[in-house]
RNA sequence: GCAGAGGUGGCCCAGCCUGGUUACGGCGAGAGGUUGCUAACCUCUUGGGGGAAACCCCACGGGAGUUCAAAUCUCCCCCUCUGCGCCA
């Protein structure tokens, strides 16, 4: 969230930055916040005064009692005060709830370098690498090929878990892990600390890391408990430092979080029923950095480069685009997406998302560092970038490394993580047998796929 | 899951039974002072908020309650430690 002090001191500057997003709702929220904040400060002053008075009288009562004199008059005077204080407190609490609600929804200030644009079609390409291949054969859909090779099972996953789930089998499961290992090793070499975070977070901690709408649209809630399944390791990595003050020497802190990620994907079209592109559960290695404000532009470039180097190591053609004003989310002040080439569709699609969040997350987290020179606490900056989201990447790999024989070539850099396996192909002697069930535990739901 | 003991400032700890001016003391850190030394010593600062300031308010794991007044009494919740139980 934004610093309320900044909003009080420079409302015009903040408002004009927010207006770049071309969203009247945001400006309405902002104006309401300004007005309610004034009311809050007035009431708070008034109550502080009443409390002060009450405290004084209480002390007088104590004094007079000690002297053995009657305190009836003072008691009468004192008794009137708590009621008025309570009345004001109700309104103050209302205002605080509303103001926090508003503050949590008002997005981050945009970096001046963010280009103006209405939506994702106006993002600005910043870099392209590699030559998109022109296969001489028709590229098979990644899910279809995985199924044919017997390394993925979608039907049974859909039956027992629901649409948007899948089983990875044999070499493809191994490939998923190999990708994670490659990503992890590259990051460890760059000084990142590997972290396996908790997969559940309590709401209070979670609110510090995401926009509120995500609770409805993205996160799975655990029934009967105040916990949510994480949507990315970014969240527990950040929440770990809730209310934390770093010493200046501790910064920067660079983490490589590895976890399964769970997303409801409500309202998103095209949930992928026979593939890995948009699913409810996937594995991801995430980069997360805490640093001093002056250093964040440097780390922003560094974590972007890490992901680009991973794609280069895997020989996947990609392009990096600078996200425009209309396509920016709530949290980031500047963002790049890195997009991999799809030979099947002949276009780039999103693989990674690299954000500089400035001090926006740090404000919610209340994550600061002690400036050694001034001995004052300042908010840190946070940055994050996908190193690899395996499922999304599996699609990319299966398409780009597909041969005309219908096998999948394993990129050389992954051989050592694949027990030296160089391709994924159909075992010659073995036909792939689908798993079948003798009984029908889910009557009437034999298959929800009708093609 | 059961039982017991706990949670107090950046860290350690007293206060709680018996409610009452300013939450005791130590350590660490920062600023200043003193001194033939970077040692020792002395003073101040070291949670959050409001206010131009003087100053005021809040904060003893979180929340609610009782009271003129709550670290202290009551209730609910969270977490830690020890023992038992269960468990990959």
UniProtKB/TrEMBL annotation:
BP GO terms, sorted: seryl-tRNA aminoacylation
Domain of life of the source: Archaea
Positions that bind L-serine: 232, 263, 286, 384
Keywords: Aminoacyl-tRNA synthetase, ATP-binding, Ligase, Nucleotide-binding, Protein biosynthesis
Record site feature (Important for serine binding), residues: 386
InterPro entries for the chain: aa-tRNA-synt_IIb, aa-tRNA-synth_II, aa-tRNA-synth_II/BPL/LPL, Ser-tRNA-ligase_type_1, Ser-tRNA-synth_1_N, SerRS_1_N_sf, SerRS_core, tRNA-bd_arm
The keyword Hydrolase appears for this protein: no
Name listed for the protein in its UniProt record: Serine--tRNA ligase
Species assigned in the record: Candidatus Iainarchaeum sp
